Amino acid sequence: MTLDFSTLEVLRTHNPAWRLLRSDHAPLVASFLHRVFVAPNVRGKAAADLAEALEDELYALRLQLGEKGETAFPKPALEYLNDWAAPDRRGWRTAASWTSCMASRARRWPCASRRHRAM
Question: CA-based, 20 to 30 A from 81: which of 13, 48, 99, 118?
């Protein structure tokens, strides 16, 4: 792949990793997924466990950031997880990866397949 302007512009607007890095919540998403999946070397997690872990993370951030935290992260954890996994432009995953993930027998988020591991 050549790294010319056109190629990078397409990647910037369509690549899920670039879309994640451009999102308002990139620091939250990246740090949370690293803490929950990468650091402990976990490949899948039940959706309820993931939502509970994110709720704990949001609670700690809101305490740490005070009033700014309340306005920066006003939604419950499950809404953030659904937004992040949304196949439309709000989320950072592509429609194809979400469809594949939903078809996964494990019904875990993110899906357990190698191709779609989080980060």
Answer: 13
Residue 50 CB neighbour total at 10 angstroms: 22
pTM for the structure as a whole: 0.67
Take residue 5 and report the two structure tokens written for it: 């302007």
Q: Pick the closest to residue 36 from 17, 21, 56 (CA basis).
A: 56
* Cβ count near 119 (within 10 Å): 11
Contacts of 20 (CB under 8 A, 6+ apart): 26, 29, 30, 92
Three-state SS annotation for the chain? CCCCHHHHHHHHHHCHHHHHHHCCCHHHHHHHHHHHHHCCCCCCCCHHHHHHHHHHHHHHHHHHHCHHHHHHCCCCHHHHHHHHHCCCCCCCCCHHHHHHHHHCCCCCCCCCCHHHCCC
